[in-house]
Amino acid sequence: MIRILALCLLSASAAAAPSQQPPVDEKKLYPLGPESQRQEGVPKGTVTKWSWKSNVFARTERDCWTYVPAQYDKEKPAAVMVFQDGGGYQNENGGYRVPVVFDNLIHKKKMPVTIGIFIQPGTFPPEKEGEKGKSNRSFEYDTLSDQYARMIVDEILPEVGKSYNLSKDPKDRAIGGASSGGICAFTVAWERPDQFRKVLSGIGTYVDLAGGHVYPEKVMASERKPIRIFMIDGRNDNRGLNADGQYDPKRDWFYQNVRLKDALVAKGYDVNYAWGMGIHSHDMGGAMLPEMMRWLWRDHPVSVDPNDTTERSFRSGRSAAPPAAPPPGANPGPR
Fold first, then answer.
1. Which residue from 190, 207, 280, 317 has the highest number of Cβ atoms inside 10 Å of its Cβ?
2. Whole-angstrom distance, CA of residue 254 vs CA of residue 218
3. Cβ atoms within 10 A of the Cβ of 156, count?
């Protein structure tokens, strides 16, 4: 009798346990669309790599890239978009392919002429020869302060601005990233809405790595800021299970993304969002990037003059020649 009862209890316990989520092939679930592929007749912009030693984050070094569309005109201020973990975003064969997407959307006038700035997290030089440098990514991205915003506003933008005519209108400036890069992008706009008012947040780390789970309360307790944001996450993102199997809602990525979205909506922010079935990966973000760009930049100026043939044509341009090589020993800048 005891054995039968034990078996019944074991069976009931097994029935109550959550079922294992079947594996999802995210590449098939979220394939890249035509606007993420090279299109015939679309002018191609240029991407230039450079490096930066920050004063805000002392002793750190980082790689950066600047994308300049073929339609850029130095007489006209260009919109700006900054990407964290920029190496992945600028890769034409990667998951996001930002230069390809920008080329296609700018050509079709679905977004303004925009210069892209792609920034890697800082690293500290190795202390000994043969060692790897130490990454400063989590401190830079997950900390709720204005420090990273100061690096962008006081260092990076002025450096790129030496070579290109960047708009100073915050409505012409966007910033984006994924995971810790997503919360970093939101923090920059939150701290400096006078500089950035458009945010792209993918699988954002609004969890308690460095206190990011408090953003919903901060949003509700503050006056609404002029920020537009597109958020995405997957229902199978990291769901807050600790090493001992205990659930911690402060470490549940999907739950905390939904909480922040709800707070932003309640306060009247300009919010769009999409919840997918994915895990903590970039596939959904890559597939949706063209759609998210169209939405973020949807109100860029247009001409309604029926005689304006320029407005009624695709944006032309010529593929710019590669920049001149820097002199030997120079630290190549964004020129």
1. 207
2. 18
3. 20
Residues contacting 77, CB < 8 A, separation 6+:
165, 166, 167, 168, 169, 172
- DSSP line for 173-188: EEEEEETHHHHHHHHH
Task: Specify the long-range contacts of residues 26-34, CB closer than 8 Å, at least 24 apart.
Answer: 26/278, 26/279, 26/281, 26/283, 26/284, 27/283, 29/276, 29/277, 29/278, 29/283, 29/284, 30/276, 30/278, 30/283, 30/284, 30/286, 30/287, 30/288, 31/287, 32/97, 32/286, 32/287, 33/287, 33/290
- CB of 283 closer than 8 Å to CB of 95: yes
| Low-confidence winner among 2-6, 59-63, 167-171, 274-278 (lowest mean pLDDT) | 2-6
d(C-alpha 249, C-alpha 214), whole Å: 12
Cα 123 to Cα 112, 224, 316, distances in angstroms:
33, 35, 39
Residue 49 backbone phi and psi in degrees, to 5:
-95, 145
Q: Is the CB of residue 87 less than 8 Å from the CB of residue 118?
A: yes
Give 40-85 as a DSSP string: TT----EEEEEEEE-TTTTT-EEEEEEEE-TT--TTSPBEEEEEES
Structure tokens at 274: 């999409």
State the chain's mean pLDDT as an integer.
90
**Is the pLDDT assigned to residue 128 strictly greater than 90?**
no
CATH level 3 topology of 23-125+135-205+274-296: Rossmann fold (3.40.50)
- pTM across the whole model: 0.88
Q: Distance (Å, rounded) from C-alpha 249 to C-alpha 278?
A: 19
pLDDT greater than 90 at residue 23:
no
The 3-state DSSP composition of the chain as helix, strand, coil percent (nearest 5) reads 35, 20, 45
Residue labelled with tokens 């005109």: 73
CB 326, CB 50: distance < 8 Å: no
Distance of CA 294 to CAs 105, 183, 308, Å?
8, 21, 23
CA dihedral 13, 16, 18, 19 (to 10 degrees): 90
